[in-house]
Design brief:
The protein is an alpha+beta fold and 194 residues long. It has 6 helices and 6 strands; from the N terminus they run ββββααααααββ. The chain is elongated and about 75 Å long. GO terms for molecular function: DNA binding; zinc ion binding.
Length: 194
């Protein structure tokens, strides 16, 4: 038999209660922003603080700062000289948000290809392992659910690498560089000079 837990506002000197509703039994709290229910073991608010910081980028601005740290008032004064308004912590975006990931050296295609070629992971692992899928999701990648699609992704990435090597070698040849290629057990060795 499941019981319905009622949540209500709670007046306290801890800032976390501005963002959470407390259960009647005091054993859990519900986030006002995302409706996540978090246990408050032994009436501790540590989990609530962690949730606010990790999920909503909200920190307690009134917590004690070490003496050797720069004061927040001097930082805010210096920052206000640079820009008239700063977005609130919950609305800030990471700088990497403004750059496309697809063409970076750490693209999903590169990571999957490297894990299959170098680490020997089978393609089926990328489809069946929820933990691996969650890791990719945490980095902002949506991993395909089909092993055929993943195989094509790895093959296409391999083809782009081959084309890159061919182009680099063509440029070396056109500029008069001399080099030799040696293929041994699946490895390509390029030696050259001017």
């Amino acid at each position: 038999m499941s019981s319905i837990v009622k949540y209500s506002s709670f007046a306290s000197n801890s800032f976390v209660w501005e963002h959470f509703l407390k259960s009647e039994d005091g054993l859990s709290a519900k986030c006002k922003r995302c409706k996540t229910v978090i246990k408050t073991t032994a009436r501790s608010t540590k989990g609530l603080h962690v949730h606010l910081k990790a999920k909503h980028q909200i920190e307690d601005l009134n917590k004690k700062v070490p003496e050797n740290a720069v004061s927040s008032s001097s930082v805010s004064t210096n920052l206000s000289m640079l820009s008239p308004e700063l977005p609130s912590p919950s609305k800030r975006t990471k700088i990497t948000h403004h750059f496309p990931i697809q063409n970076s050296e750490n693209s999903m295609e590169e990571r999957v290809a490297r894990m299959t070629a170098k680490d020997g992971l089978p393609l089926s692992v990328f489809v069946t392992s929820e933990d691996l899928r969650e890791l990719f999701k945490a980095k902002g990648f949506l991993l395909p659910r089909s092993s055929t699609t993943i195989r094509m992704m790895v093959m296409n990435y391999g083809m782009t690498l081959r084309m890159k090597v061919v182009n680099e070698l063509s440029q070396l040849k056109e500029t008069g560089h001399r080099f030799s290629l040696t293929l041994t057990s699946g490895h390509l060795q390029v030696t050259g000079g001017i």
